[in-house]
Amino acid sequence: MTDTGETGPGGDAGHSGDAATGHSGDTATGHSGDTGDRPAAPPIPAGPRGPMGAQPGAKAEALWPSTKRLLGRLAPHKAMVWAVLTVSAASVVLMAIAPRMLGQATNYIFDGVIGSQLPAGQTKDQAIDGLRAQGQDTFADMVSGMAVVPGVGIDFGAVARVLGIVLALYVGSSVLAWLAGYLLNIVVQATMRSLRADVERKIHRLPLRYFDTHARGDLLSRVTNDIDNVSQAMQQTMSQLIQSVLSVLAILTMMVVISPLLALIAVLTVPLSVLVTTLIARRSKRHFVGQWRSTGLVNAQVEEAFTGHQLVTVFGRSREVEARFQEQNEKLYQSSYRAQFISGMVMPAIMFLGNLNFVAVAVIGGMRVASGTMSLGDVQAFIQYSRQFTQPLTQIGAMVNVLQSGVASAERVFAVLDEEEESPDAADAPRPGAARGRVEFDDVSFRYKPAVPLIEHLSLVAEPGQTVAIVGPTGAGKTTLVNLILRFYELDSGRILLDGVDIARMTRDDLRSRVGMVLQDAWLFGGTIRDNIAYGKPGATEEEILAAARISYVDRFVHSLPDGYDTVIDEEGGNISAGEKQLITIARAFIAQPSLLILDEATSSVDTRTELLVQQATAVLRSDRTSFVIAHRLSTIRDADLIVVMEEGRIVEQGSHDQLLAAEGAYFRLYNSQFVGADI
Fold first, then answer.
1. Whether residue 337 is found in the same domain as residue 454
2. Do β-strands 596-600 and 455-462 pair in parallel, antiparallel, or remain unpaired?
3. How far apart are CA 210 and CA 356, in angstroms?
4. Coiled-coil regions in this chain (predicted)?
5. What is the pLDDT of residue 571?
6. Distances from the Cα of 588 to the Cα of 290, 585, 591, angstroms
7. Taking 80 as the threshold, does the pLDDT of residue 620 lie above it?
8. pLDDT, position 8
9. Which of the four pLDDT bands, split at 50, 70 and 90, describes residue 31?
């Protein structure tokens, strides 16, 4: 197998590709070059791992702080939230009044039935005295608590009026509940849109060090799966929570009005429900955290296996990859099962308490009707209220698992938002004058890890128009050097000057707009070949695109494609060869016309004949700008103005090709190892 480059931590190819000039967010590093002692992502527990085998953060915050922070994101929509609360309260009030009114209709019917059984022409008191004289004291007590008229049956007109009012109350409550849900949907989706935008902006402000130490699949899971889960959790729980809490308050008020004694019996179930919910939620929380952590790991592993499918197949590791997937998938299954099983116990437990409450209310209420201290309609209404009172508590219990799952996902998203960002650009950042491309390394020192030296006290000057080739063994710090030019990392000490201005004082946009970069791992996005070339210069004309394609020899193969420049490249670029992809990335750099050009093994994926043509093209491109060329094949840099040989982060030699060969030093040994034979 041919060594095509120096790998980054864990071989992460997530940053490979050329940095399009003028786009500060396009970082280009990682798999394409050496990293020295770049910090690697924490390992997964067992088995070999690739770039996506990293372990995301495992510790979760407390439920309430994360919930409070999530709700705090509703602040920009405060007016809409108050509208939701107001409309929901109106809906709940109408719903709470309806059972009492329905109880009144029951009273009309029951009073009419009993009244028709009493002798007509008597007063109510006379009828009660008559019942007592007949020894029907219980019946007399019940009649004493009713609004009966002896000899008069059911007043169907009054019943119809009450039922009409109840129907209007239910319809009005339903309409208001729909309106509250509609307004809440606007609030939640706007909040999620804001959260996604914040995460997107945060990703562009994160230093490259973050991406070097975090699995790409897990990061993708956080910004897609976790945010979607937060959205669903908020959509499902907020509406029900608002309705449930308001319903509990309204129903409790109505129950106290009807019978303080029965209300006290009903309220006794509340602390028991809270206790049960708290105990179960405490046990299930850690399983929900594990569920979403395992989801990130599974996504990372799937992304790794899919990206490296060819290598997995070539090396016959399909069974091992499948076994690792099954292991992670089993962990996801176990954590998901436990989380859902434990949290699922909340609803049955609360329903059991609610049924006990229903039995107590029915028995005591029946006794009070019999004693004449309560009307049948009030008991009927109270039973409805007791059912409605426990229903919101049951709903809250059922929402605990959804809420905990959403909060666990929110913690993972907030962890990204809380990461340390790149240092901000100075407000009064200076700008170099005319772009000349002079680059000076002034006593530069840099380490990925504080305890592991990499580049120490390096000084180098690249004059305008010079081609500087950087060579050396794997891990010497070659790619690190050009990454420092682009400010992907900040220096520990020293300065890098571009046209006399310290790049640490320049804005990153200004700096990177002057630099074009082509890496050995070509990155293309889903779009046409024309779009990919024009990515280097937004607003490029058709003539500029064609000129860049011709000089980079893209034009030689593009006409053989069915749609020419309008050929759509899939996300993996599988419909064109690796060499053709590389030529497109070179064309992208050509069209940008940068003052500083960086080529990191840019021709490693093309055939020998095409390599010669590309070298001629890059020679034209380099003619009036400074170029840094990282190369392993020394034949590609013989004509460089200056060849810099690096070992262990230090420049050990520099000079022209002939001068370095004559010195018979490090370059001489490297050259002979390629063209003469291995230096033993």
1. no
2. unpaired
3. 55
4. none
5. 59
6. 43, 5, 5
7. no
8. 38
9. very low
Question: Distance (Å, rounded) from C-alpha 625 to C-alpha 614?
Answer: 17
- Asked whether residue 457 falls in the same domain as residue 333, the answer is no
Cα separation values, 613 from 17, 247, 527, 557, 607, Å = 21, 77, 26, 13, 10
Question: Are 401 and 222 in contact, with CB atoms under 8 Å apart?
Answer: no
Number of separate domains in the chain: 2
Q: What are phi and psi of 506, to 5 degrees?
A: -80, 155
Domain endpoint, select from 359, 381, 400: 359
Please write the tens of the pLDDT for every residue from 638-647: 888 889 888 8
Same domain, 660 and 530: yes
- Are residue 465 and residue 554 in the same domain, yes or no? yes
* % helix, strand, coil for the chain, step of 5: 60, 10, 30
Q: Are residues 342 and 473 in the same domain?
A: no
* pLDDT for residue 349: 75
Give domain status of residue 465, yes or no: yes
Query: In this structure, what CATH number is given to the domain that contains residue 461?
Result: 3.40.50.300
Q: Helix crossing, 376-417 with 78-116: angle to 10°? A: 160
Domain range enclosing 636: 439-677
At 171-211, the pLDDT tens digits run 999 999 999 989 999 999 999 999 999 998 898 888 888 88
Residue 443 neighbours by CB under 8 Å, 6+ apart: 457, 458, 459, 493, 494, 495
**Integer distance in angstroms from the first to the last C-alpha of the chain?**
21
CA 350/CA 167 separation, integer angstroms: 30
Our CA dihedral for 589, 592, 593, 597, rounded to 10 degrees, sits at -40
Total residue length of the chain: 680
Strand partners, 469: 629, 643
- Inter-axis angle of helices 78-116 and 156-205, nearest 10: 160
The per-residue b/e assignment along 426-454, b for 16 or more CB within 10 angstroms, e otherwise, is eeeeeebeebbbbbbbbebebbbeeeebb
d(CA 499, CA 438): 5
Output the average pLDDT for the chain. Answer: 77
Pick the more confident residue, 22 or 366: 366
Based on the fold, state whether residues 451 and 346 are members of the same structural domain.
no
- My answer on whether 495 and 352 are in the same domain is no
| DSSP letter, residue 222 | I
Pick the range with the lowest mean pLDDT from 42-51, 116-125, 316-325, 631-640.
Answer: 42-51
Q: Residue 342: what pLDDT?
A: 72
- Could you give the count of Cα atoms lying within 13 Å of 385 in the half-sphere of its Cβ? 35
Q: Say yes or no: 296 and 444 in one domain.
A: no
Residue 125 lies in a domain: no
Domain end among 319, 344, 359: 359
Q: Is residue 620 part of a domain?
A: yes
Question: Per the confidence metrics, is the pTM higher than 0.70?
Answer: no
The strand order across the sheet containing 439-446 reads 455-462, 439-446, 493-498, 501-502
Q: Judge contact between 619 and 639, C-beta under 8 A.
A: yes
Half-sphere exposure of 638 (CA within 13 A, CB side): 9
- Whether 303 is covered by a domain: the verdict is yes
At residue 179, the pLDDT reads 94
pLDDT tens per residue, range 559-600: 888 888 888 887 555 677 777 888 888 888 888 888 888 888
